């Protein structure tokens, strides 16, 4: 299902919660969310973070209670989205009544039977949540200008919502090239439940598949990370680095290394913690939780 919502919907916890409660009554296992832009106000990076964090976090909270096993992906709005990919991903559309259905780019909906396009009311729901309440980048008031070469790194094991936000922001920022560092096996030995870690090949495949969904036409350059810096100390032309708040000190190390090499330091975009405390990182969304769940499932008779 493609779910089309407004920016207002995406910022309001009460609105997005209502929307997802309706969505969860549908017989679907994949949800693709498109935030319809407010053309009077260009999207900034910080606004994108607010949208992504609110959507993913709200959906996670609801499904963790209901125990529903649904996958959600938030798309980057693109009037030239690949219609062939759209036809492969969804066959129905649900949009909020604040969205002008005729303004949705045809690429997203032209393959969908009209009888499978429906609306849901949110216009009467009062929004009391302010922007930038929790999730923000280092400069939340900055306007967006594409950056030629952007890098992001991680294990990307059991690709979860935190990974998706990192990759989506990185894809949004880049104007030409996205470099994704994926941690190699040599650095994973101390990870908890490492025997349930996905292979490097599977993690790379999942990264490529996700980027293809959210921004068709962008093909990431994948590097295997075997040290702290990874591609940031191998590719001089990188302009910016996207990291989680937990990894910010690693970004400082990277820039010190680049200075030693005589290269320009990177602009660093820091994303808040999803589903956890930003000061202690307690209860943050983690691949470890997914590996632990698999371990407990396989050892249920011993627990």
TrEMBL record:
Keyword Flavoprotein among UniProt keywords: no
Keywords per UniProt: Nucleotidyltransferase, Transferase
GO biological process: coenzyme A biosynthetic process
Residue ranges constituting the Cytidyltransferase-like domain according to the UniProt record: 152-292
Species: Pichia kudriavzevii (Yeast)
GO MF term set: dephospho-CoA kinase activity; nucleotidyltransferase activity
Name of the protein this chain belongs to: Phosphopantetheine adenylyltransferase
Gene3D superfamilies referenced in this protein's UniProt entry, alphabetically: HUPs
Coiled coil location: none
